[in-house]
Write a structure and sequence with these properties.
This protein is an alpha/beta fold. Helices cover 23% and strands 24% of the residues. Helix 2 packs across helix 7 (248-266), helix 3 packs parallel to helix 5 (168-182) and helix 5 (168-182) runs parallel beside helix 6 (199-221).
């Protein structure tokens, strides 16, 4: 349902970018001053970027145009299926958007379908399943769908059901062998499992997760096409809606981890690829004219997506997300109602915007969508209901 905004004035502000470094050529080291504001401006870059200020790395993205779809099968339990009504697509809708925004031709495959709106909803996740139950059905899934990529995240229900936990790592090892033996050309990505709010179970989660990298590395050493993906470390208990199922923000963190692994494994060996940058003590990011993934850190960050369809994550602190007309659709993954701000720029005013349910336009109805006076989509605010956004959450420049 539309939520028309009252004609209430909102405060104007200036954006202090501090010292600005010009990025875009690649293979640069930007070293800011810890006591000053520092911004890297990538608006002149010739390709899209991924930046994570937490690990101080910029990745320039050059992807091949794959006319034949890359088939991708998400396998697991309710976290893969999308158990909660707040995010019926789980991590899959976020991952689909990330991959397609970056130019991948993606076909999700599997014998099940669930989600909201505009993404390929096929998958092979089943609520409640343990490792052994995934093993019972994986051969048929592989022979039916012949996936190029399998995303495997399983083990949560082994812990919830206290099912022969001492043997869980061995069951996972056997499942990896089962997949790679039947489908050796498939890229298998094996994720650690998300955290658990229950302290006693979290100890078991930690023990299980700690063994997965070694299991995967032993398979790689044997020549198997398998990669470990750290799902758990970027998450915390605030990313859980109940004891084990992620919030929309938590699902986005999972999607980001899968995306980075897929990106790194499928970036072409191309001499024209631009080497990445290293950033130190950088506070703010101005993105490119392409589709970027911009992630801040625990400090106060200003994130400007630029012209493309960008994914913006503040990652803590008091963050400002800059919006403008004709600058694409920004997806803001972790907007904190009690501290973050949406900054309207380039003449855009609060009186010109409308805040509606994203479900009205084919997205997750639990998210807010911001439109301008021409009904142009400006931003999707993940996990935020339209009626919770007030003039207090906006400012103009």
């Amino acid at each position: 349902m539309n939520s028309e905004n009252p004609s209430s004035p909102i405060p104007a502000t200036t954006i202090n970018f501090g010292n600005i470094f010009n990025g875009g050529s690649g293979n640069q080291y930007f070293d800011g001053n810890v006591d000053e504001l520092e911004t890297v401006d990538y608006s002149q870059a010739t390709t899209s970027i991924d930046i994570n200020l937490n690990n101080s790395i910029t990745t320039y993205n050059i992807f091949p145009a794959n006319e034949t779809p890359l088939t991708l099968m998400p396998v697991g339990d309710s976290i893969t299926e999308g158990y909660l009504e707040s995010d019926k697509g789980g991590y899959r809708d976020d991952l689909y958007r990330l991959l397609t925004n970056k130019g991948y031709n993606i076909d999700f495959v599997g014998n099940r379908s669930r989600g909201h709106g505009k993404f390929d909803q096929d998958h092979a996740g089943v609520t409640g399943e343990r490792i052994d139950q995934v093993s019972d059905r994986i051969n048929n899934l592989l022979s039916t769908y012949h996936p190029d990529i399998v995303l495997l995240m399983v083990g949560t229900n082994d812990i919830l059901q206290n099912h022969n936990l001492e043997d869980a790592p061995n069951r996972l090892s056997n499942l990896i062998d089962q997949i790679t033996n039947q489908s050796p050309d498939t890229q298998l990505f094996v994720g650690s499992i998300p955290p658990d709010k229950n302290a006693a179970r979290q100890k078991l989660v930690d023990q299980y997760n700690a063994l997965i990298p070694g299991i995967v590395e032993s398979k790689r050493a044997a020549g198997k096409n398998v990669t470990f993906v750290d799902i758990s470390s970027p998450m915390n208990i605030d990313d859980l809606e109940d004891d084990v199922h992620p919030t929309p923000t938590g699902n986005n963190r999972i999607a980001r981890s899968w995306y980075e692994a897929i990106r790194d494994a499928n970036t072409p060996d191309n001499p024209n690829n631009i080497p990445g940058d290293t950033l130190n003590h950088i506070d703010n990011i101005i993105g490119t004219s392409y589709n970027d993934v911009l992630t801040g850190n625990s400090s106060d960050n200003i994130l400007v997506g630029g012209m493309g369809n960008d994914m913006l994550t503040g990652n803590g602190g008091v963050d400002k997300f800059v919006l403008a007309s004709e600058h694409g659709v920004d997806t803001i993954t972790d907007f904190q109602l009690d501290q973050d701000l949406l900054v309207l720029t380039n003449g855009l005013t609060y009186e010109q915007i409308t805040i509606v349910s994203a479900g009205d336009f084919g997205y997750n109805p639990q998210d807010a969508l911001i439109l301008n006076q021409n009904q142009e989509q400006l931003a999707i605010i993940i996990g935020v209901q339209p009626n919770t956004l007030t003039p207090n959450h906006f400012t103009t420049v």
